[in-house]
UniProtKB/TrEMBL annotation:
Entry keyword annotation includes Transcription regulation: yes
InterPro entries: BetI_C (IPR039538), Homeodomain-like_sf (IPR009057), HTH-type_TetR-like_transc_reg (IPR050109), HTH_TetR (IPR001647), Tet_transcr_reg_TetR-rel_C_sf (IPR036271)
Keyword Transcription regulation: yes
Domain HTH tetR-type: 8-68
Annotated organism of origin: Streptomyces ficellus
Tree of life domain: Bacteria
Cross-referenced SUPFAM superfamilies: Homeodomain-like, Tetracyclin repressor-like, C-terminal domain
One Pfam family it belongs to: TetR_N
GO MF annotations, alphabetized: DNA-binding transcription factor activity; transcription cis-regulatory region binding
Official protein name in the record: TetR family transcriptional regulator
Keywords, alphabetical: DNA-binding, Repressor, Transcription, Transcription regulation
Amino acid sequence: MSSAERTRETRERILVAACEVIAEVGFEKIRMRMVAEHAGVSTALLHYHFENRERLFAEAMTHSFAHTGTELERDADSVPAAVILARILHSLLPTDPELRQDWRLWQELWVRALRDDAARTLAVDLYDQLHAWVSQALTRGIDAGEFADCDVHATSTTLLSLCDGFGIRLMLGDPRVTVDSALAVIWGTAARALGIPPEFPAL
């Protein structure tokens, strides 16, 4: 393994560890030593790659986000646009342990964004990327004739807002909301706007 490959592997291991630790204990309680121990590296090596907690947090959020984006691109050229859209909407809810961890990271980011300009800028930038994912899926379906024409920007914003609202209630364990009931409402909203069947597609 080359030096560059070792460096990438070390950074990856640190970022995965940071996501796990931040999700478990919260940003305010996290210490660099905790992440170093979880990643199996020295504190000095951790500081070599990430100068402080704020930088580590920002890159951990971006890493988590990029990983989700990579998964969403799987087979993107060989499946219907409705399936791509369904994958995106499914990934925007805490539907499995990994996505629940992502949601805990988002919640930490929201809290920090209320008090910190850098965190607020990061949150807005990540939301812009989420909006782009949804918008691209809608545009693809419209261009392919799978979806009826619609206001792509407004529809994307509505779907993201529904995912946020239901996601919060799912994270809180609201007994009146399940993943299936949330997806039914979200997909029903998409179906009405796009002229597609109301049944959530198989992923």
